[in-house]
Amino acid sequence: MNGRAAEALPADAEWTFEFIERYDAEIGRVAAHYGLDCYPRQIEIITAEQMMDAYASIGMPVFYHHWSFGKHFLSNERRYRRGQMGLAYEIVINSNPCISYLMEENTTTMQALVIAHAAYGHNSFFKGNYLFRTWTSAEAIIDYLVFARDFIAMCEERHGEHEVERLLDACHALMSVGVDRYKRPPKLSLLKEKERQREREEYLQTQVNELWRTLPPRQQREAAPAEKRFPAEPQENLLYFIEKNAPLLEPWQREVVRIVRKVAQYFYPQRQTQLMNEGWACFWHYTLLNHLYDERLLTDGFMLEFLQSHTNVIAQPGYDHPHYNGINPYALGFAMWMDIRRICEQPTAEDRAWFPDIAGSDWRETMDFAMRNFKDESFVAQYLSPKVMRDFRLFALVDDDNRERLKISSIHDDQGYAELRSTLSDHYNLSKMEPNLQVWNVDQRGDRSLVLRHFQHDRRALHETREEMLRHVASLWGFPVRLEEIDERGQVRQIGEAKVDRRRFPR
Amino acid sequence: MLRIIDRRNDSKNKSAVNRGRFLKRFKNQIRKAVGEAIQRRGITDIDNGEKVGIPPKDISEPHFQHGHGGRRSTVLPGNDRFHSGDEIERPKGGGGGGGAGQASDEGEGMDDFAFTLSREEFLDIFFDDLALPNLVKTQLARVDEFKRVRAGYTQTGVPTNINVIRSLRGAISRRIAVGSPYSKALRALRTELEQIEDEGRGDSEEAAELRRRIEALLARIDKLPYIDTFDLRYNNRIRIPVPSTQAVMFCLMDVSGSMDEPKKQIAKRFFMLLYLFLTRTYERIEIVFIRHHTQAVEVDEENFFHARETGGTVVSSALELMHKIIRERYATSVWNIYGAQASDGDNWENDSPGCRALLGEKIVPLVQYFAYIEIANAEPQNLWREYQKVQDQHPDRFAMQRIRSLPDIYPVFRELFRKKIA
Fold it and tell me: The complex's ipTM?
C-alpha cells in the first residue's frame, strides 16, 4: 500500500516490552490513518491469577468488598484449574486513560491482536458512542471507585461488616432496576463526591420527612382533599427512588445505595451495546492487522496464528449445535460492520433498495456515524442487511404457551427479512427483555407501604425469585412492600407482599 | 500516548478478602462439609485442603427476571430445514433443539457450587469446632519449624549481617598484598636515596628524581582503598530443621456395642488432634490402633473405626496389649510414646482396679503423655474412679476428661500444649 521498505515486526512467541511498544506504535499509526479517535492508552500486564481477581470484581481495578465477588472468584478459579474455562485474553476498562489488561501468558501475536482489539477498537468505541458519552464519565470512574471502596470500608468499620453486607445484598439484587434510562446522571468526581456527600446526607434526611408529615398545614389540607399519589408519576429507577425516599434508611445507607446505583448505571451502556462494541473491536483488529500485513510488516506465521484466534472468536454455531449458546455478539457484530463497509464499497441492487442512504457512501464516515449514534437495538433495526440474515441463516421462532407447538414466524427470505430484523432488534432491547417494573405508589397516610407494579408484556410472568426480591426491597424500604401485576387487558392483581416485622432496618 | 505498566508483581491476592467474606457467610454449610470430610478421612490425612460443595439455592443472587410462560419470540442462527409457518414440537426438558434457544435463564445448574478449601482454611474450621485457644491454633497450623544457626561467613548478604572484624582483617591483608610491590620498590628507592645523600649529592638531579619517584609510590600506596566491597564478609546463617525425633501414638478405643457412630466420630477427632500435635513436634510418627471389647487386637485404621463388635468390655486387655507392643517394638530410649484412649466408660467391674495398676505402674512411667476421654452422659462408673487415682499419681503425664460435645476435647490436651508452648 505504501512504498516503505518494510521490515517485518518481530514474531517470536515470547513477547517483550519493546515488542509491545513497537506493535502499539505501528497499530496506532494505521488507526490514525483510518481516523480512529481514542483515549490515551494504558496497557497493564497481569498474570492469570490477577485476571481472575479482575473477573471477580467485574473487571474493575479497585472495588469494594463483598462475598459475592469471592464466590465468583472461587467458581472461576475452579473452572480455570480444571481447564473448563479459558481466561479472556484481555479486559478493557472504559476510563481515561483507557486501561487494557493484557495477560502475561499471551504470545506476541495475541498481544498485538489484543492491543488492536481493546486499546484501539473498544477504546474508540468508548470515546465515541453516545451512550458512553452521556452515561459514563471516563475521566472520573476510577476516582469514584476509590471513593466507593473507602466509603464502604468505613461503613464496615463503623457499623459492622454484617450490616453492610445485608445492605449490599439487597442493593445488588436491585441493580437491574437501578438504572435511569432517560435522565443524564451528574458528573462524577472524587473531590466533589466527598465534599458533597455530607451535604447530601443532611439534605436527604430532611427530604425524607415528606413521608412523615402527617399533619399538613390547614389550608393545604383543604386545598387537596383528593388522595394524592406519591410518586406523582410512576418511577422506573427503584434504587433511586429508595435512595431518595425510603423513610428509615440512615444517611450512610443511602450513600451505599447510591454507590451501587452509580455502578449499575456505569455498566448499563456496556449491556446496551455489547453487539456493536464487540463487533466494532473485532472489525478493527481485523482491519488494522490486515493493513499491517499488506504493508509487509507482519509475517505469514503471525497472520496464521492471528486468523486462527480471530476465527475462533467470531464462530457462530448453529441452533442445533451442542455448543450453541445464543447468538454470538462477536460473530454478528463483526459480520454487520464488515457488511456496512461492503455496502458502502460494493453495493448490490439489493443494498441500494434497502440502504439507499449509505450504499456507495464513504465507509469510514458511515461507520463512524453508526458507531457514535446507535445502540444494539437501533443498530440492528437500522443496519441488519438481508445478506447478513442469509449468511447467518437466521429464523424467528414463536413460543406461545397457549399453543401446543412452536411456530416458525419468519426466515431469511423476502417475506421474512423485515420481521426477522425487528424481532432480533427487540432482543437487544433491554427494556423489553427485562421485566417492566415500576414504583407505583406509596401509601402515605396509611401503613407507608410501597407498591411496585409489573407491567406484563406478552403475558410473561415474573420469575419465582420475586418473593425473595420483595424481601430485599422491604428491607430497604422499611415498611411493607406489595407487588402488583397488570396484564395486557389492564387487569391488576396483587402477586406478592413482603412485610417488615421490625421498624428499623434489620440489625 | 501509551503507558505500559507491569503489574505482575503486584499483590496476587486481591480477592483474598472477598474469599474470606464468602467463607464466613457460608460457614455453616462449609462446616458441615468439613465434618463430612473428617468422617471420610484418615487420621494422618488431616493436614490437607478439602473440596467443598454448597447447594446452589443457598448462594444464588436473585434479581427480577421473567419466569416461564407467556409468548416469546426468539431468533436463532443456522436454519437448515424450516420455512415460514412451519410448526414444530416443543422440545422436552429444554435441552438442545429450537425452543431452548432461550438459554439465558441464568444457568441455574443443579450441581453444587464446589470449591477447594486451602489447608489453613480447613484446619481453621476443624479447630473452631474443638474450641482451641488461638495460641494453640497457630502452633498447630504452623508449617515445619526451622532454627537459624551460624554457618561461617559469606561474601554476600545484607548490611546488618556485616562482620566488622572479618571485613577489616580482609581489608588489611588485601592492602598488604596489593601494596607489597610498591613497598618493595619504595624500600629500594629509599636505600638508593640514602646512599646518594650519604655521598653528599643530596641536591643533585639524580636525588631529586628519586625523591619524585618516592612521592609517586607513596601516592599510589595511599590510593589503595582502605576498604573495598571485595573485603566485606557477612555472617552466614542457615536454616536447619529443629532437631526432631520419632514418636509413636497409641490409639485405644472401646468398640463394644455401646460405642455408637457419633461417639466414634468424637473419638476420631480426639485422635486427630493428638496426631496434629505430634506432627508439629516429631518428624516421624507411627500410629498403633488397638481396639478392644473383651479382647484387644491391633488393627489398621479402616477396621479401627468401622468394624462393629459386640459384647462386654475388658479395658485391661487393651492396656496389656499396648504394654506388650511397647516392650517389643518401641524402646523408650528411641521413641516418644503417647497414648490416647477413648471409651464410653463401661468396664467389667472387677477389671478396673487392674487397669489402674497396669496404667499407673507400668504404662504411664513409659509414656510422655496419656490422655483418656470418656464419651458418656451417664454417671461416671468404676473405671473413671480408678483412673482418677492414676491422675493423682501422675498429674503431669495423665489427663482425663468426660466428653459431651466437641469443645470438651481440648482440655484433655491442655497440659500437653501448655508444656509445648512454654
Answer: 0.81
